Amino acid sequence: MARPTRPLVNSTLALIGAASISLSVHAQGTPETPAAEPPTPAAAPHKWMPGQPITTADDLLVALETADLEIKTFKAGIRYTRIFSLAGDEQIRDGTLYYETLDRGDATTPASRRFAVHFTQLRVGKRVEKEPKDYIFDGEWLVERLEKDKQFIKRQVVPPGERFDPLRIGEGPFPVPVGQRRDDVLKRYRVTMLAPDDGVDADSLRSFINSGDGSYQLLLVPIADPQDADELAEIRVWYRKSDLLPRMARTINLVGDESIIQMLNPEKNPKDLPYRIFDTATPARGWNVRIEPYRGRIDPP
Question: b/e for 121-150, b at 16 or more Cβ within 10 A?
Answer without folding.
Answer: ebbeeeeeeebebbbbbbbbbbbbbbbeee
